[in-house]
Amino acid sequence: MHTLQSTLRVPGRQCRAARSPRSTCLWSKTQTEVVVATGGCAPVLQGKRTPWRGILLFGPPGTGKSYLAKAVATEANNSTFFSIHSSHLVSKWLGESEKLVKNLFQLARENKPSIIFIDEIDSLCSSRSENESEAARRIKTEFLVQMQGVGVDNDGILVLGATNIPWVLDSAIRRRFEKRIYIPLPEAHARAAMFRLHLGTTQNSLTEADFRELGQRTDGYSGADISIIVRDALMQPVRKVQSATHFKRVQGPSRADPDAVVDDLLTPCSPGDPGAIEMTWVDVPGDKLLEPIVSMTDMLRSLSSTKPTVNEHDLLKLKKFSEDFGQEG
């Protein structure tokens, strides 16, 4: 049998995550909820004012729910952060799964203030059915007991859950997540910022107008989808080099010394260009190759071949769940 300590990844007080455009628009509200839940505003939590014990982040895949949870957790009163997946709490041994759940909460109590983040919680706490195994039923029961905190002190412990399909959660589990926050697809300005972020310091010829256009053209795309578009666009210059039949000599920074400018670099060109030399990329010395910079044309070509991964049907179900049980992020 495996122990909880060997199963869980527990970054503790060393976890760090930087903010990104995926989470910036939701940062303030979610951060406030987490800080309050872990006792960051203890002087004002008097009388009937009690912090949330459970917060559920739900929304389409690729919108940064897991990233957002980890990012805001690092800002929350120096809390211990337990990041687990539902598979970490499932064991083939009879009764072991319930022990793992119980030990997880016990570790959290011993290291308060603490945050337990469970990714894809729907795979662990889905609605009960007649075909459900006894082991799955016992895990849900133990979760309910631990989140309720009957007979134990759960002050300073926050359970953060993330899911793409919140409507499959067991109703009793859903009630334990008192705060349910919808993380929607990014808006146009956030999508434009993501393109800039993923390009980073890579040389490119895109203008601010180009980034705005890309943001407008990617309605319905998630942050993960945009990451794939940029990664593919970054490979376009490589493909040009590999398929080129002619190269020409140009000036550019030396590979050996970026501060020095040399005039013997080779870059792909059309056969009719002045100075075109018939050769392939295998004939070009590695220190003489100057690959083309990323252009708007590269971006649009990658965009045309990359479709959004979130379908309209799932978006409607998420919005309906938000209207019935949640709140906008």
TrEMBL record:
SMART domains: AAA. Its main location: membrane. This is Vacuolar protein sorting 4-like protein B. It comes from the Eukaryota. The keyword Nucleotide-binding applies. Residues 51-187 form the AAA+ ATPase domain. It is found in: Endosome membrane.
